[in-house]
């Protein structure tokens, strides 16, 4: 959060992979700051807007998205003064998904969705500032 704050980033995207004690769980998860969080209300709208764009881009590329979830208990959100989203790219605890996550072609597919969503987000913020 401090690095992004000091850089005055337009958006911070943290890339992670999930794991759970369930080898059948699959799909991406997007986490964002809470609308009602004590420290995150100011960055919520932009964070949520990007999360929605990323969800759409992923789904358009055939990636299952389990949802967008708000969190008020994460220091990476609570300390951030710039919009932020965590992209949980899939479940390493799922053998098939773990193999996909290690595949360069699948990684490229995921990052193309990230870039597409960034471009759409930047277009939206540029239009809003005119």
Question: Could you explain how this protein is built, in words?
Answer:
This protein is α/β, with parallel strands linked by helices. It has helices at residues 2-7, 44-60, 75-78, 95-101, 104-128, and strands at residues 12-18, 28-33, 65-71, 84-91. Helices cover 45% and strands 22% of the residues. It has a four-stranded mixed sheet with strand order 1-4-2-3. The radius of gyration is 15 Å and the shape is globular. The chain starts with a helix and ends with a helix. The relative contact order is 0.25. The model has no long low-confidence stretch (mean pLDDT 94).
Number of DSSP E strands: 4
Q: End-to-end span in angstroms?
A: 28 Å
Mean pLDDT: 94
Number of helices: 5
Question: Percent of residues in beta strands?
Answer: 15-25%
Radius of gyration (Å): 15 Å
- With strands numbered from the N-terminus, the spatial order across the biggest sheet is 1-4-2-3
Helicity level: 40-55%
Q: Which blocks of ≥5 consecutive residues have pLDDT under 50? A: none
What's the order of the H and E elements? HEEHEHEHH
Global morphology: globular
Largest sheet, in brief, is:
4 strands, mixed
Give the structural class.
alpha/beta
